[in-house]
Each structure stands twice: as C-alpha cells, then as structure tokens.
Amino acid sequence: MNEIVVTGANGFVGRALCRLLVQRGYGVTGFVRHASNSVGGVRAWVDSSIDFAGINGTWPLGLKPDCVVHLAARVHMLNDDAADPEAAFHATNVEGALRVAEAAVQRGARRFVFVSSVKAIAEIDAGRALREDDPPLPQDPYGRSKLEAERALVQYGIETGLDVVIVRPPLVYGPEVRANFLRLLDAISKGLPLPLAMASAKRSLVYVDNLADALMHCATDPRAANQCFHVADGGDPSVAELVETLGKHLQKPARLFPVPVSWLRLVGRMTGRSAQIDRLVGSLQVDTNRIRSVLDWQPPNSTDEGLAATARWYRSTH
C-alpha cells in the first residue's frame, strides 16, 4: 500500500495521522478545506463544498489511492445552533461519508477506514467494557449519525467489494486538543477548585498519537479487512485520577474536593446539564482486545506519557 488519502487532514487527529504516514514513507494526500497549515510532505487537496458534494469535481487528476481514511465529520457540539441537528449530522456524517466512499471506489481504492466514535454505541457502559458487537444505543444526533454511517458504509462495501474498516475511539486527547479537555486544562492551570474527588468511575481515553498509529495499521494491515475496532490507551483512569495526573504534569497540583456523585447529578438535572455531568461521573470503558489480538496492536505511548506531552504543549502555549 503506497498512497493514502486522509480527509480532515488538517484536523486534530488528521494532522497526527498525516505526520506518522509521511514518516513511514507513505504517499499522503490530505483532503482539506483550506491549504494553509498542512503537514509537511502531504499533498493538499482543497475542497470547500458542503457535505463533500463537489468531491468528484475536485478529485486530483491521477490520484488512485489504495486507501481512504475518512476523518472529516460534523462533530459533537454541546450548544448546537443548527435548526435541525439530526438532519445536519445525517447530511455530513452519513450522506457525505457515502459520497467519499463512492468517489474512492471509482478511483480504484480497495480500503475505506471510517473513523466513527464510541458514541455510536453508548455514552456509558453497563458495568463492563464495551465490545464492538454490543447492542448500540446512541444517545444524541452525533452518535446516531455515526452509527447510521457505519451501517451504510458496511452495506456499500458488501455491494461493491470495498473493504470497510470501522474504528471507534473514545475521548481523544493530546497536544492541540480543544473543547472540554482544553477547558479542564485551563481549570487545573488556574487552580480552580473542582468537585470531582469522589468521581471514581473509569473512563477510556486515547492519546492522539496512539490513535494515529492504530489508524495507520487499519489502513495498511491486510488483517484489518472488514473489521470494527475499539481503540484506547488502556489503563482507564477515573476523572479524579485524570485531574491529579494532569495537575502533576502541569506543575499545578489539582484542587479536588469531595462532593457525592448523586449531588453532582442533581445539580446537572437542576441546571439542564445532566448530559455533561454524566460524561464526567459515569463509567465509559471500551474493550480493545479485538485490535490487540487481530492486528497485534499495542499503543506506543502510555496514558501517563500522553498526558505529559499534552501538559508540555499546554504550558508552552498558555
């Protein structure tokens, strides 16, 4: 396998994946909205069309990839201002993904790696780590769109012979992280007191470079054919342990104080933030035995190493 297309190549995960692929000697074309800030060694393919509607018109002449890794998506947002979020997620994450897959097949691609999310099957686990074949129960438009895309792509693969690989990461962190993880870093750095000392439920995480390594294997290893994989660091810290470890690496000891989890859930209901509180205090672990056994994959970095790298980046930029 010599040529790989990465959609969302300038995104958080896309940049990490592109850097790794270039380092390993693969030819990489990055599908991006804007050419600026592309990773060195990556051929930029600029397409600003909505939901990939223009992909056939902008497909670079002569580009015949072995594999497409589809990262570009409409992402989960706490305050979604779309008039119809369900329709907006469907348009990008389902219809758009199918357009990319169809265009890839027309140019001879043999494999399509779809980066889904653990949210396609659950927001919390049921007392044990989530496996790939667990009954899916997505809870929001984003999760439902990812599950629908998985199913549509698998069916398309059956009809066309395209080898479709599904990857479901949990929370991804690392240098350049944004959203809630960045807000957590801000809070710890500022010494804000956090009522999370009793938040003991375990949460699976994946360091961005670990996810990039797993995606490279999924794109290039023949054994990944038509598989679905959960990817995580392993170790699965509680939120309290996560905050303490980040505080250590930020050199800003975390200011945790104990509040019963039931009280936090009550505050969530009273303030309309139950979903956010559940993500903090609920258990969400994923079982990564399949990727470890099928591909002999091991995360190249430990959670502590990933958190240390994230803290170094934060301290250098804030």
TrEMBL record:
Keyword Nucleotide-binding included in the entry's annotation: no
EC top class named in words: isomerase
Taxonomy, superkingdom: Bacteria
GO molecular function: isomerase activity
Sorted UniProt keywords: Isomerase
Classification via SUPFAM superfamilies: NAD(P)-binding Rossmann-fold domains (SSF51735)
CDD domains: UDP_G4E_4_SDR_e (cd05232)
Pfam families: Epimerase
Alphabetical list of InterPro entries matching this protein: Epimerase_deHydtase, Lipid_A_modif_metabolic_enz, NAD(P)-bd_dom_sf
EC number: 5.1.3.26
Sequence ranges assigned to domain NAD-dependent epimerase/dehydratase in this UniProt record: 4-225
Entry-linked PANTHER family: BIFUNCTIONAL POLYMYXIN RESISTANCE PROTEIN ARNA, BLL5923 PROTEIN
Name of this chain's protein: N-acetyl-alpha-D-glucosaminyl-diphospho-ditrans, octacis-undecaprenol 4-epimerase
Organism, scientific name: Paraburkholderia domus
Gene giving rise to this polypeptide: gnu
